[in-house]
Amino acid sequence: MRSPRFSLIIPAHNEEAYLPRLVDSVERARERYAGGIEAIEVIVADNQSTDRTAEYARSRGCRVVAVEKRVIAAVRNGGARVARGEVLCFVDADARIHPDTFNAIDRVLATGRAVAGATGVTLDRMSLGLAVTFALMLPLMWLTGMDTGVVFCRREDFDAVGGYNENLMLAEDVRFLLDLRAVGRRRGQRLVRVRAAKAVASTRKFDKHGDWHYFPMLARGLSALLFRGKSLERFARTYWYGRQRTP
Q1: What is the total count of domains within the chain?
Q2: Residue 247 covered by a domain
Q3: How far is it, in rounded angstroms, from Cα 10 to Cα 20?
Q4: pLDDT per residue over 197-221, tens digit each?
Q5: Is residue 170 part of a domain?
Q6: What DSSP character marks residue 112?
Q7: N or C end: fewer C-beta atoms under 10 angstroms in the chain?
Q8: CB atoms within 10 A of CB 144
Q9: What are the two backbone dihedrals, phi and then psi, of residue 87, each rounded to the nearest 5 degrees?
Q10: End-to-end CA separation in angstroms for the chain
Q11: How far apart are CA 79 and CA 36, in angstroms?
Q12: 5-17 burial, b if ≥16 CB within 10 A, otherwise e?
């Protein structure tokens, strides 16, 4: 069997409510891809779900791999281990991807100037609190070239950096892109933001905690970083590893 061009990896813990809209968007992007639908495989890395996440994913033709370790880096790595694609892509289960995602990534990689990158995002909704929070992130993105949305890299570069660091319960995505940037620097390549095909990010954390919650949360996170140990783990588990809520 011919290997696919892309493997899209979706880490998922109790995402039955959000997965349908993501998979619908993925199907539109697969249909639009110039290399054909079969050039893109979709993998759902099921992380101890107690709802119908795995059953739904299988019913939509996704490959499902069970990952037991409740650390997001391990879930992404678990999906990558079974992936057959030349290019690995990672996206959150509550997002939606742009119809031109795979064509846009292909165009960027074809230049030879990108080691990896991300599509960036727009938000499900907007408010003053969300706008201020988003604006706070922009300088970091401009300075580093890092972004979120659909994160992508070549398979060989993923292997070269050892994937995502499973010792980190948070900011593993930042560490991953920094590691890839170091690989690219040696080859004269850089991280790229593919802004022509932005994903749509869910605002469910803001819906749950409030549109201004990021600022006190950031203060708590910085405090946890200073003390590390159980304090950092408790902070991460409370904010990122609780049971997912329905819309």
Answers
A1: 1
A2: no
A3: 12
A4: 999 999 998 888 898 887 777 666 5
A5: yes
A6: S
A7: N
A8: 14
A9: -120, 130
A10: 39
A11: 22
A12: bbbbbbbbbbbbb
Domain with residue 150: its CATH number is: 3.90.550.10
Task: Read off the pLDDT of residues 57-87 as tens digits, 9 standing for 90 and up.
Answer: 999 999 999 999 999 999 999 999 999 999 9
For the chain, the average pLDDT equals 89
Digit-coded pLDDT (tens) for 158-182: 999 999 999 888 789 989 999 999 9
113 falls within a domain: yes
- pTM for the predicted model, two decimal places: 0.88
The torsion angle over the Cα atoms of residues 95, 99, 100 and 102, rounded to 10 degrees, is 60
CA distance 3 to 13: 28
For residue 1, is it within any domain?
no
The angle subtended at Cα 135 by Cα 198 and Cα 13, nearest 5°, is 55
Q: List all residues 6 or more positions away from 73 whose beta carbon is below 8 Å from its beta carbon.
A: 163, 164, 165, 166, 167, 168, 172, 176
